[in-house]
Amino acid sequence: MKAIAIQTFGSPDGLALIDLPTPAPGPGQVLITAEAIGVGGVDAMIRRGTVQGFGFTEGHVPGSEVAGVVAAVGDGVDPSWVGRRVWAFTGTGGAYAEAAIASAEEILPIPEDLPAADAVTLGSSGPVAHYALAHARFAPGDSVLVRGAAGSIGILAVQLAAQGGASAVAVTTSSASRGERLRALGATEVLDRAGEGGRPEYDVVIDIIAGPDLPAFIGRLAPNGRMVVVGAIAGFPPADFGAAMLPKFRQSISVGLFSADTVSASDRHAVREKQFAAAVRGELRSVVHEVLPLTEAALAHRKMDDGEVFGRIVLTP
Length: 317
Ligand SMILES: NC(=O)c1ccc[n+]([C@@H]2O[C@H](COP(=O)([O-])OP(=O)(O)OC[C@H]3O[C@@H](n4cnc5c(N)ncnc54)[C@H](OP(=O)(O)O)[C@@H]3O)[C@@H](O)[C@H]2O)c1
Prior knowledge:
It is built from eight helices and 15 strands.
């Protein structure tokens, strides 16, 4: 089968089309023939070599989510899955290929009316946005700031906050035109990347960016405000970022982290299933930036690096 591997960490040119034997599902696993593969911000971070501690080596096939048809099942998996159309989480890699392996616990049937590209745009990001808001104890009436709203997690967080009764939904983004697109999805205030604009303080900050500006956004928390960091697109915050909390000590602010790894697969599926159904009804929008052939994975990453992507790029074999 055709697959894309990281031959050299760094630039998108290090991604190469290779031939690999089609893998066989092991016990508890399924083999999925891909229809659509999501290109996530974390894939670009892994390719750049900035994600440490997971032991990625040259030859790594990136990609963590795929939609397609179950082609085979391993020992212990119900054979009635074969032929069913599913969304799957493949872990920290393996999805940029004509076929991918996933744990049977990490697959969910896709509604007939949901295009595969939409499934891989919502499948991971939707539950991350949902549980990040829950982790921030978001409640109706809270003002919410989504930092890094133009990506697939942010786009879902904006919609969920607006639908959940937020009193304001602010976003950071790099251009006025993106701001308008985010307003159409439920944003009510548009800030630039540095946080210029909007109100002085927010009850909830969902931060997908981290990096050197994190302390400034900690400073935007209202009394009893909660920040939840879900990503680090701009890298680690300064080592002393916790100092930004001290001037707000008497305002009882909280700064926390959220990873979907701490939510069970069945709980993530429960949210995902509802979100897929909401998307079919037109109540939740997945924003597919562009669909490209799998062979153009390097182009997809170049577009990510150039900041061109609003929503998610999807690859098709
Ligand atoms: N917590 C979890 O369970 C979980 C799960 C999956 C992924 N993640 C993390 O989520 C992140 C990727 O999320 P995503 O795919 O939604 O985002 P994304 O598409 O990679 O980026 C979202 C937006 O951030 C803005 N941005 C990019 N670089 C920036 C910078 N240096 N400073 C400020 N803004 C910047 C860009 O919008 P503008 O140009 O409009 O500003 C971009 O469109 C990764 O860090 C990944 O590790 C977390």
